[in-house]
Amino acid sequence: MRILGIDPGYAIVGFAVVDFQSGKFRLADMGAITTAADMPFEARLRAIYLDMCELIKTYKPGELSVEKLFFNTNQKTAIDVAQARGVTLLPAIMEGLPIFEYTPLQVKSSIVGYGRAEKKQVQEMVRTMLHLKEVPKPDDTADAVALAITHGLLMTGRQTLEKYG
Q: Which CATH number fits domain 2-164: 3.30.420.10, 1.10.10.10, 3.40.1190.10, 2.40.30.110?
């Protein structure tokens, strides 16, 4: 299964393409879609949309894993991130890709085994699981890798439950 992990945003969208087969993960690619702060917001959304279209076209993922948004403070930021998240997901929706959402607690629990793990613990575990020399940078990319791995781990559990449950 090829999974596209996405950490949404409007300045930086982290992405990771991870292959998961026979209980093993292999990183196909990772990086970040970035937009300049001085760009008009609509141009930033367009750039994110077009880059996501290209990622999906290039890597042909079977499923998409994305962080579930949660905001409790700045309403303006929440609205802007939600708009960026929408254009990030639209290419996947148009291609009919299944989209799975995970909370930070689910990611931490699946990667580290503890829902209150520190970000550095998650990043180090991602590095170890994929046999990387260093932690993916920027943090948004590391988060996207963790989201893709989480999906692989949790889908395996779901498939096991469906098969034997």
A: 3.30.420.10
